[in-house]
Amino acid sequence: MESSSFGFFLLVFCVSLLIPARTQTLPHYHVALFIFGDSLFDVGNNNYLKNAIGLANFWPYGETFFKHPTGRFSDGRLISDFIAEYLKLPLIPPYLQPGIQFTDGVNFASGGAGALVETHQGNEGRVIDLKTQVLYLKNVKKHIKQQLGDAETRTLLSKAIYLISIGGNDYIAPPSEFESFPKEEFVGMVIGNLTSVIKDIYKVGGRKFAFVSMGAFDCSPNMRALKQDKGGCDEEVTALAKLHNKVLPDVLKELQGQLKEFKYINFDFYTTLKEELITLQNMEANVACCGAGPFRGTLSSCGISKDYEVCEDVSEYLFFDSVHPTEKAYKQLAKLIWSGGYNVSWPYNLKTLIEPGNHQYTNGVNFASGGAGALVETHQGMVIDLKTQLSSRKWRSSQTDIWSPENSLALFIFGDSLFDAGNNNYLKNASSRADVWPYGEKFCKYPTGRFSDGRLIPDFIAEWLKLPLLPPYLQPGNHDYVYGVNFTSAGAGALVETRQGTVIDLNTQLSYFKDVNEKLRQQLSDAETYNKLIFKALHLFSVGGNDYAVYVTSNSTVFHSFSKEEYVGIVIGNLTSVIKEIYKNGGRRFGFVNIGPYGCAPFTRALNTSGGCLEEVTALIKLHNRALSKVLKDLQEELKGFEYSVLDFYTSLSKRMNKPSQYGFKVGKVACCGSGPFRGILDCGVKHEYELCDDPTEYLFFDSARLTEKAYNQLARLFWSGSRDVTWPYNLKTLLKA
């Protein structure tokens, strides 16, 4: 690579001799854009490489916007092109293009490049690796100094945006010498190289950085084609991408503490690529517009392979070729990077980074994205139509929807799999996970960690509170808590001993809540605003079922040394202790879902040789529900301002199990997904022999213990606005008006 690099330096140096040796002054509002990375941002540098690993300088690349191939791996413009437009800059040229000026910035990105020098190194000139891209930046600085002088150059470089997308090639095609490395060690090397480059750019004069996290390329048409008959995502790449995206935010925080004036945004490309574009835009996500083979996913087949195909309408597709998105997709992603909410770009968006006087995003503005505000029309008008949602909540980029304690209400969620939105995805030894298909098939179209085909009770409650879908607490990059957060964990109980070490028990959830409280104190700055948020917040609970399931199924003497009454008293005592701790921290409004009739669920029926209910479980649950009602009444008398609502989940679910047709279901006692009697073995999506029903809307239970989205929607409505025979002393809507 050395002789080739020298040639490129020489080319730019010769071109620079044509520039008059005089200084200029740029307008005060001028912001340059320097772009680093791979094919996501490459606008044609690979056109000038002798042995480029990938090229896009032939038809049909460029067909939509440019009407001719430019070297961009898409039908039109890329994210960086739209960012340049928003900055009122011309299209930023590739560094290797002869005769360019540098005061608007330059694009160093190279298709196939990685953070590691070894990635796609092969023969000389295959890619421009990240370290070489930084060498080119240093050379550019010299030429800008000749043109503008020292002072203007420092100003230009400090105000500029440094846009970086790198790492995907390292993980998709790791160099052979690193294949035996543990995942954590390999990701550490990639992040380490990136960190080194960031520091080098900082030394050059860069202060403002924009990072695009690893995208969901584990599920690209190319990855699906490689899976052959399975056609699924590449789990190895998924694990690496998620690990990268988990480590990167921590590294950026550390750099902010180390490097004076270092500022950054981190765009959640992984989640957004799936949720925003697939769910909201309803794009074809599995098949490429251009390519050959299964899913049109054969790598580098678009425009080259004899049997390649091109779709009729590229705007209907997420991917243009087997790996790279379409112009339409890039445009939507660029908008979110530029002006999206805290749930997709943090600690603020790019516009706010450039205009430091605009702090509204750091105070908690959250645009309805990530599937939060656009709801698919299902169940005969039971949810909000997609077009209605998109018109009112989809892209809230008007910058007028500012959070304040007067017009917003936070939702903090505690409990088990009834409410878990994905925390167990991040536990190393989780007792159970729902991160496999067919979980999530109904609403998000992919598994999110929710134990259902779609949304859960808290998701609907959040919608009616005009909140976004609340993320799991352990989700990387989640720092915005003014709308609340979800602490729940599938398998968790009120007791620390229940499935200990494989779940987030209730006491640990409480400790997370206290951490969030402390962060909110710091974020909201004044005590009055913080107190209003916590005082008005709703604290939602579903817990206890696993404590009783373990009591019946476990051989542990820890559980069986107590009578049923004593054991229920311990469970209720732990729950009461947590409620009081939340009260001490300012919480006043609570919503409880009592324990459902799990003695008669598909999983318990499957355990019973007669196929009937397990009466021991039923007895414990009934004792619990009676004790819960009494304790809450006592707490209302004991704790000033304590208000609560209880959904009679037991009775409401029992009615639907016994008479499903009265509530719009056909099947009430058999799960949609699972195996064995009643499909009651908890192996949905895990073992090859599991069965899946044709239509989940006909079923009450989705898997052997959890419900379908349709069932959760009905029960959430009862909790929200039901009468006193199902929710008492009043429903949530009335509680929150009090």
Descriptive key words:
738 residues, Rossmann fold, 2 domains, six-stranded mixed beta sheet, disordered N terminus, signal, SGNH_plant_lipase-like, SGNH_hydro_sf, Lipase_GDSL_AS
Structure classification: alpha/beta
Tally of helical segments: 23
Proportion in helices: 25-40%
| Bulk shape | globular
Largest sheet: 6 strands, mixed
Tally the beta strands: 16
The strand line-up of the biggest sheet is: 2-1-3-4-5-8
The fourth-level CATH homologous superfamily of the largest domain is SGNH hydrolase
Between the first and last Cα atoms, what is the distance in angstroms?
70 Å
CATH fold-level assignment of the largest domain: Rossmann fold
Instruction: Give unreliable regions as ranges.
Output: 1-23, 357-402
Using the CA coordinates, give the radius of gyration. 28 Å
Number of domains: 2
State the CATH architecture of the largest domain: 3-Layer(aba) Sandwich
Q: What is the beta-strand fraction?
A: 5-15%
Mean pLDDT value: 84
Question: Which CATH first-tier class of the largest domain would you pick?
Answer: Alpha Beta
